[in-house]
Amino acid sequence: MKLAQLLILPATLLSAVLAIPEYSEHLHLRPLPNGYLYAGFNFTASTSLSAYESQHFRYFPRSLGQILQHSHTKELHLRFALGRWDDESWGSRPRDGKREGGTGVEIWAWLDSGGGKPAVEERWSSLVNSLSGLFCASLNFIDRTKTTRPVLSFEPEGTHRGGGDGMELLHGTLPHEVVCTENLTPFLKLLPCKGKAGISSLLDGHKVFDANWQTMSIDVRPVCHVGEECRLEIQQTVDIVLDIERSMRPRNDPIPRPRPVEELECDESKSYHASDTCYPRRKEGEMAWSLSQIFGTPVRGSCHVADGDESPDVSLEISPDRAVEVLHSGSNETLMSDAQDQRLRVYRLSDSGKYTDISLIQQIIQEAPHQEQPPLYASRQITGFGQERGGMHAVLHNPHTYPQRIVYLESLPWFLRPYMHTLKVLSHPTTSHDQPATPVKPDKMFYTPALDRKRGTHLELLLTIPAQSTVELTYDFDKAILRYTEYPPDANRGFDVAPAIIRVLPLNSNSTAGNGKTQDSYLRTTSLLLPLPTPDFSMPYNVIILTSTVIALGFGSIFNLLVRRFVLAEEVPRSALAVRVAGVMGKVRGWVRSLKGRMRGGGDGGGRAVGGAGEAAGGAGGMNGISGVAESRKER
Amino acid sequence: MALSARLLTLRNSPVLLKLPPYLSALCIVIGIAWFFILPLNEYSRQTYVSENAILPGQVHTYFGGSEHNVFRAYRQEVYQLSQFSETDRLAALEKVLREIGLKVAAQPYHFTVAGEEVKGTNVYGVLQGPRADATEAMVLMAAWRNFEGEINYSGLALALTLARYFKRWSIWSKDIILLIPADSTYGPEAWVSAYHSTSPDITATRNVSSLPIKAGALQATVALDYPVGPWGHRFDKLDILYDGINGALPNLDLLNTAVAIASGQMGIGCTIHGMLSHSDSYRDRLTTLAKGVVTQSAGQATGPHSAFVPYHVDAITLKTVGDGWHDEMSLGRTTESLFRSINNLLEHLHQSFFFYILLNANRFASIGNYLPAAMLLAGSFTVTALALWVQSGQVAVGPATKMEGTEKNGAQPELEVVKIGDAVALVPAATTKPAEREMLLPAAVVLAVHLASFLPLYSLNSLHRQHLPTALQTTIATSLLLPALASTALTRRSQISTQQIQIMQSFSLLLLGTSLATLATLNFSLAFVVGVLASPLSFVRPLPRGTTTGFPAVLGRVGREYRYALQVAMNLIATLLYAVASPPVVLYALCWYFSQDVGGLLLEMAKGWSVQGVYTSFVIWAVWWPAWVVGGIALCRGGGER
Question: Is A86 on the interface with B (CB under 8 A)?
Fold first, then answer.
């Protein structure tokens, strides 16, 4: 069997040469305003489905492949994210936000739905537990309470047999998970060059996690091209935004201590400018930087392992006026703009030579940096204070001149209990503040209410955000009280609530505004901290509570004895009202009985009437009921 | 049952019936004495940092060097801004913040206080912590004008310099919000209430616009108050202001951290309540304690930080005092170190005390030590209330003199013959007999007086500031007349009985006692102060009227005509004393004692009530005042026969 596979191998390789390479990597660099640099690493490997099914792995990581096979996962998306994307100054998100995750860890996957719900849950559990071990992340804490099944927010990216039937989507988040070096190391281990050569050699934990925003993603999906065998593709990306100034601080002196007075750049136009008074001047122009300064190391060698991989490794999206130099094994060369796109410089790492570095000098560029406006601005906050109630307030702002359809997904933990009747979606134009807000009716709404300790809330809204307007989404919620043992050790920190995921749907091709995106894009709000009522776990309060209870019990009983007057039950006089009511009732009853007796006629009717009268007399006399009855019996 | 039977017999024990006034007086005496033992070493403790994560003063601070040049420039800039118009100033501030690299937003607000409009705009910037995920934030506040109304030149300049310096660090695990409110009361209140408001709209009641940028849960707030002009002034000590609205206090850990950093790391002495020279003697500790109690009981804002505390955001103000050798850089390093410590926090500050009274910057009395003082005072009212209740259940048989039991001339108790079967016994005749309590009228009176208390409460908090002193004078006049008039009306019209008077007083005192006991757990100082001021109410009994009732037996030999005159004189004195103990008169007296303008005090109270939700005036008018009025009705009713 294995021999046969080995024999087949050259054949598959041959086909690979003609088609897409089995492995390629790419680094995209783009300076952002205010001294930031975006670096997007992309590593793509693939294997044919037949090789995958026969457990033959080459560039596709075996450890991950086996997990996917075991858990019958058709398509996997895994995200590790930290920080936030500042879309006001950095513009739209890289890769349309499709390779981005909410703060912490996020995972969604399409699993084979054969065998019914229990089987799917079993597979999901096995998937997250195995991945947890593989990536040193607490993914195993994604249990049923943290799993949702979104309907509208995600669609499979790959081409699946049967158009996606027989698959089920499950989505889980861990907003509290702190992404760290221990997650990066296994991530790099999946690469063919293991971070030792090629652009992945730049990925150093110190720099990646010093970034203002960073997200790591792993996406596994089947890709089919017409006339070719379907392939299983794994795409690993690392997107980071670095503060150039901070990253370039030398490693032996990382403390941002105040600079010597001579190095201060002062605004000398200020009237009070003096040798000891220095108004800091705003930095102008683009900063000088180089790969080795920012990442602490130049690119080591190259990782051109797959055949047919001719694509450039590094691309720079930068103003055509900037000078870019490539230092490669002691020689400098100037990197020129790409023939097709003036804003792009591309470079393919040389297979010979040890180190490659790219450096830019400080320049003042007149031209404003090109920036694409994000499709939508979104923010979400918890409002209110106190330990009982709160509110959620999401603001979605559409800056464009055309309306946009979005899917708004929230998966809330069960201890946050939203009141859906308080859900309000109000829209008001951004341009004029005087106009009253108009309610927006969601086109569709999917809502799965939470079950305590079993299931979280899943809320999905399909909304249309009018052009140039702001939509505010609010609802109220209650905070549940957890059981004593359900609190984590840092109970007073609060509980993390996963970010809302917003999918901006593509505009219809025949829509009037032609400048909208044709592909959907994603954005995520920041995660939230929900303070829950927390018992005081400290000893003194328990003591106070206990002693107070004991004192209250003792005081209560003694107070009761002192103040209350004890009399025999018979001594209690009946209240005047009760006596009067009883008298009236007795009279009525007697009258009814005598009426009945008269209707029937005969002697025994008279006896009853007498009894009734006796009762009435007893009532009127202020006796209790028993004596009244006794009297009437005597009369009988 | 044996125990309860024995207890039941106790009810009629003459000793027990006479005990309550003494018990009540004892409670008051012990309660007040308790207050005076708190400064002793045995009843207070040295402060300590309880939260392990804070690590105060463990980091090296780097703020200094060329930052001083930047600071001087910012101070000049702030000085220039003070010459601008308000709109220009706000725009320029926003520009400076933007240059530093913060996300900038502004928040206009306006309040209506005592018939006047207060308007302003808060400017704030968010420094997004590079490693923060927008879930937590700390606030660095420098109000444009400090609490005394001076322009906070150096404080604001220092905050700007610090923000610029903080921007370079990558260690922040929480966002830092630089808040520049227009003043120190309304601005912070508007900002923090909008930050926590559940409604995104401008509400008609608060007139505070919502905040465009937020940064998660606020962990702590540090306000800088350093109103020194462009030429600088070196200070001697840091005064740490910590009182929040309604006597809520920030977590003691925050205060301790500030003190530990300032005095331990930077060598800047710290003071509390402006006690510049504190020798740690009993006298100084007691003064600090008394100042703390007065400030806390007022419940008013003491600085820009005060507005944050009710929202469970621990906040303090660092105010520079005195002439010394510490410069702005020392304050800057203190603030830097303080923010580093807060940044270390993994959880919201919760470890240390929220209820404490400080005796100096590093000595405090905790709730377990001080609470009995207020509780005993509140208890004194309850004891009297219970005694009156028991008394009201027993109506005197025969002449009322029997009740008093003041005859010392050995009068024999009347005896009566009791025959049960064959047995004959001679027993003392009962001087009292159980009686039904008629409770409707007393309850109605108490309720009516409490409802009437909303009149002074409303008028003193809502009228225009010009009319406030007049309103107080009117309140005094009506308060003094009300008990007499009400009592006459009740006696003439409703034929109110002594028993009903007792029940009425009992209800009122019970309410006062429970209210104060509850209040003591929220705002100890207010409960204690009101308890002390209202303590005479426990001893109010109907004034003796007529010839013999309740007349001191010692004066028995004095002639009849003198007796009458003496009684009138004594009644007059009692009434006068009672009038002096009335809430509005006490307010006047307090103004005189602290040499404050009455109008100013009333304006502060109205401001606190309508803007910050200070409930001190509610306690005065709706808890203390009704109890005083009901006591007055009882006093004026007179102890004559039914």
Answer: yes
